[in-house]
């Protein structure tokens, strides 16, 4: 493996760890602890607030709740954002492979919007910089880092 690919791999692994931390922090950032019975309303709100590509749908299994567990309100939003992030990256990669400039432009626009999501804003500057570099590389037509991120972080998520 080349030095550049090892560096990208390392950045992706660090980003994954930091995103996990951000999910935990973001879930703690909102007031109120909820039980699983209240989660359905918050899951629907998180899905409505977080755009995904046309024709895609959220996998409710990703919002797994346990009957006796308590959840912070922000938890469901960050779960939705993490799934949407993968879906948009996959959407862009599909557009690249099919030479669909319009689809790539739609994804590029959402990549910019993602920077306002709690998944990004609740994390550290290095992770934000990493995600910004993924988007910048994509806008330049380079799929390498985006593809590696999808491969390493989006298993089980359908486009």
Strand count, sense and closure of the main sheet? 2 strands, antiparallel
**How many beta-strand segments?**
2
Globally, the shape reads globular
SSE class: mainly alpha
Strand order of the largest sheet: 1-2
Q: What is the alpha-carbon Rg in Å?
A: 16 Å
Measure the end-to-end span.
28 Å
Descriptive keywords:
two-stranded antiparallel sheet; 159 residues; mainly alpha; 4% strand; single chain; 7 helices
Describe, in plain words, how this protein is organized in 3D.
By secondary structure, the protein is mostly helical. Helix content is 69%, strand content 4%. It is built from 7 helices and 2 strands; from the N terminus they run H-E-H-E-H-H-H-H-H. It has helices at 3-29, 36-49, 73-97, 101-114, 118-121, 125-139, 144-153, and strands at residues 33-35, 70-72. It has a two-stranded antiparallel sheet. The chain starts with a helix and ends in a 6-residue tail after the last helix. The relative contact order is 0.18.
Give the SSE map.
Layout: H1 3-29, E1 33-35, H2 36-49, E2 70-72, H3 73-97, H4 101-114, H5 118-121, H6 125-139, H7 144-153
Antiparallel strand pairs: 1-2
Helix pairs in contact: 1-3, 1-6, 1-7, 2-3, 3-4, 3-7, 4-6
């Amino acid at each position: 493996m080349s030095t550049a690919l090892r560096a990208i791999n390392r950045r992706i692994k660090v980003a994954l760890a930091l995103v996990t931390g951000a999910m935990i922090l973001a879930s703690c950032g909102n007031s109120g602890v909820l039980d699983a019975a209240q989660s359905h309303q918050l899951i629907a709100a998180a899905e409505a607030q977080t755009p995904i590509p046309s024709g895609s749908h959220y996998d409710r299994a990703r919002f797994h709740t346990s009957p006796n567990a308590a959840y912070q309100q922000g938890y469901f939003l960050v779960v939705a954002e993490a799934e949407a992030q993968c879906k948009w990256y996959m959407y862009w990669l599909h557009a690249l492979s099919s030479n669909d400039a319009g689809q790539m432009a739609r994804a590029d626009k959402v990549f910019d919007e993602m920077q306002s999501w709690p998944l990004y804003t609740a994390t550290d500057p290095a992770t934000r910089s990493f995600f910004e570099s993924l988007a910048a590389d994509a806008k330049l037509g380079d799929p390498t880092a985006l593809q590696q991120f999808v491969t390493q972080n989006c298993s089980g998520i359908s486009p």
